[in-house]
UniProtKB/TrEMBL annotation:
Belongs to the GART family. NCBIfam families: PurN. It comes from Microvirga terrae. This is Phosphoribosylglycinamide formyltransferase. It is an enzyme of class 2 (transferase). The lineage of its organism: Bacteria, Pseudomonadati, Pseudomonadota, Alphaproteobacteria, Hyphomicrobiales. (6R)-10-formyltetrahydrofolate binds at residues 67, 109. It catalyses: N(1)-(5-phospho-beta-D-ribosyl)glycinamide + (6R)-10-formyltetrahydrofolate = N(2)-formyl-N(1)-(5-phospho-beta-D-ribosyl)glycinamide + (6S)-5,6,7,8-tetrahydrofolate + H(+). N(1)-(5-phospho-beta-D-ribosyl)glycinamide binds at residues 14-16. It holds the Pfam family Formyl_trans_N. Residues 5-184 form the Formyl transferase N-terminal domain.
Length: 216
């Protein structure tokens, strides 16, 4: 089995980064976390990556005069290390069309809502305000439009009476840590791929499961 070389882009503590690193430790996992890149030198996730024995790279966006210069530096660092796929994990920079198109079909992101609902920020607050009974997270391919890329995988959680943003976020992030490695596995082993703007799956899956909220 050829393991695909993956880079994780972070700006902060990198909790989803850790879940990907842990999953990739399994010998049968089709991805190797080869690099963690941060645009912030003080990102806590850098230390966590180093402790796990992962190579790190800081490309400070403040040290580059334009977004394009920053992204060209980042692209060069990725290319020099033979990176095949990128995972965004709390990377707090809006990427230009040039970078997104250069990595089309090879860059994924995890978002804390059931897209296409609640694109952007404050997803848990907005879900609670709307009174939805099901919320969750989504892994999708990155496209130039924010949080609008083709969906690879989703996980749902119930919204319960008395939920706060914090309690709902805690429930969702548990699923994020399960879902992101699953989605990375799918794109690295060819189970899911991007074709003409849609995700194509190479095998069927069990469609019998469901989530009821409120539960019976």
């Amino acid at each position: 089995m050829t393991r695909r070389r993956v880079a994780i882009l972070i700006s902060g503590r990198g909790s989803n980064m850790v879940s990907l690193i842990e999953a990739a430790r399994a010998g049968a996992f089709p991805a190797e976390i080869a690099l963690v890149v941060s645009n912030r030198p003080d990102a806590a996730g850098l230390d966590r990556a180093r402790e796990a024995g992962i190579a790190t790279c800081v490309i400070d966006h403040k040290a580059h005069p334009t977004r394009e210069d920053f992204e060209h530096a980042m692209d060069a660092a990725l290319a020099s290390r033979g990176i095949a796929f990128i995972c965004l994990a709390g990377f707090m920079r809006v990427l230009t069309d040039w970078f997104v198109e250069r990595w089309a079909g090879r860059m994924i992101n995890i978002h804390p809502s059931l897209l296409p609902l609640y694109r952007g920020t404050h997803t848990h607050r907005r879900a609670l305000a709307d009174g939805v009974l099901v919320h969750g997270c989504t892994v999708h391919f990155v496209v130039p439009e924010l949080d609008a890329g083709p969906i690879i995988a989703q996980a749902a959680v119930p919204v319960v009476p008395g939920d706060t943003e914090e309690s709902l976020a805690t429930r969702v992030i548990v699923q994020e840590h399960r879902l992101y490695p699953q989605a990375l596995r799918m794109i690295c082993d060819g189970t899911a791929r991007l074709e003409t703007g849609r995700v194509v799956f190479s095998r069927p899956w069990d469609a019998s499961g469901s989530l009821h909220s409120p539960g019976s």
